[in-house]
Write a structure and sequence with these properties.
By secondary structure, this protein is mainly α. Helices cover 69% and strands 2% of the residues. The protein is elongated, with a radius of gyration of 29 Å. The structure holds zinc ion.
Length: 391
């Protein structure tokens, strides 16, 4: 991961290259009244202040420089971006606001400065100010698509899912295929879950259907359908939805198993568990779910953990310690319970799920990674993480 000094060094190199370009354009005139010579002198002074770690003086020089051309503006935006990446957002804002306020700046130059300023506010978490600027840029010009994408990010942070759907529509009208189906489908799912919370079943089903049109076979839609059925006391329909997920996505068993146990009839549970645990992933999924969630007490699920332990030499020895081979099923179940309790206490909290993209750990299922903001990348961690070393 790049460090702050890496950014500084790379930024100064970039700046030096830009300055060289500016000098080449201005020539070598010694005339102090020459505007090109004056701009050159200002850039050199500002650059020296940066090298001397005098950022405030550098900002002062840059913002007080006279007329600047396209290259000069690019350089100042780059310097401002450098401040932003170093976390010095106030300085970045001063630089970019100054450029935006300058008279005689062309439309495209103004848009460039406006986008840079919006990025400053966005990175500082000042979303209302950033949003105002992105909304201006969204109307037309080079930054139209980038601005709408940023507005989408703001909607995600502020949970304005209706607006997010509208912005997706706008992006798709500009360029078909510019929105990943999973992203738009999740926005509909968010709206569906919101409708479900308010007991608006019909609306919730309608939104789930919308999501499925955008992304057929979406796992989250099946889960919401199951939850909607369970909310309305339709246990068979709920269990059918959960069973579908358990079969197709064993990694989801940690979330689905408790729901399944609440809705499936006794006669249907054992055949389903036998079917799911036919694969190593299924058996492991149920075992991890039982270890992590002490609320799962159903004997058939505990038996699955017992079968898993049997397959793991270390766990088998641990469970077998002090339990004779001729021990009764009750004694064996007690031994399984001891191992379960020990593993549950050892498992590090907050590590049940992990983002496949950035590695971010979380304690609950997140459809959008809180770390990298990607959708559908958080999965149940396929191992327990114990304090000290990963197992
Ligand atoms: Zn991530």
């Amino acid at each position: 991961m790049p460090t702050e000094s890496t950014f500084l060094f790379a930024g100064l190199l970039f700046l030096a290259a830009a300055l060289g370009y500016v000098f080449a354009r201005y020539g070598d005139s010694d005339d102090e009244d020459d505007p090109g010579e004056s701009a050159r002198a200002n850039f050199v002074r500002g650059f020296r202040h940066l090298l001397d770690e005098e950022p405030d003086q550098a900002v002062e020089v840059f913002t007080n420089s006279g007329d600047i051309n396209e290259e000069g503006l690019d350089t100042q935006i780059a310097v401002g971006g450098l401040f932003r990446r170093r976390g010095e957002v106030d300085r970045a804002i001063r630089m970019h606001q100054n450029l935006l306020d300058r008279p005689g700046v062309s439309r495209s130059q103004r848009d460039k400065a406006r986008f840079a300023l919006a990025e400053d506010y966005f990175s500082a978490g000042l979303f209302d100010r950033a949003e105002d600027l992105y909304l201006q840029l969204r109307e037309a010009g080079e930054y139209r698509v980038a601005a709408i994408r940023r507005l989408l990010r703001i909607c995600e942070v502020t949970a304005e899912w209706d607006r997010a759907v509208d912005f997706c529509g706008e992006l798709l009208r500009i360029e078909s295929g510019s929105v990943v189906p999973a992203q738009l489908a999740h926005y509909y799912c968010e709206l569906a879950e919101h409708a479900r919370e308010k007991g608006e079943w019909h609306e919730a089903y309608r939104l789930v259907e919308q999501a499925e049109v955008v992304e057929p076979g979406k796992l989250r839609c099946t889960l919401i359908r199951g939850d909607l059925a369970a909310d309305q006391g339709q246990a068979a329909a709920a269990a059918a939805a959960y069973a579908e997920i358990a079969r197709a996505f064993p990694a989801m068993l940690g979330d689905v198993l408790p729901r399944l146990l609440r809705t499936i009839p006794e006669s249907g549970l054992e055949p389903l568990l036998n079917e799911v645990t036919d694969t190593p992933e299924g058996l492991r999924g149920i075992a991890l779910a039982v270890i992590r969630d002490p609320r799962i007490v159903h004997p058939a699920a505990i038996d699955c953990l017992g079968r898993f332990i049997e397959q793991q030499p270390i766990l088998r020895d641990l469970a077998g310690a002090g339990v004779p081979v001729s021990a009764s099923p009750d004694a064996r179940r007690e031994a399984i319970g001891r191992v379960r309790k020990a593993l549950h206490q050892l498992a590090r909290s907050g590590t049940s799920y992990q983002c496949a993209d950035c590695g971010y750990y979380s304690s609950s299922l997140q459809w959008q990674c809180p770390g990298c903001r990607a959708w559908d990348t958080v999965r149940a961690a396929d191992r327990l993480l114990f304090k000290g070393s990963p197992v």
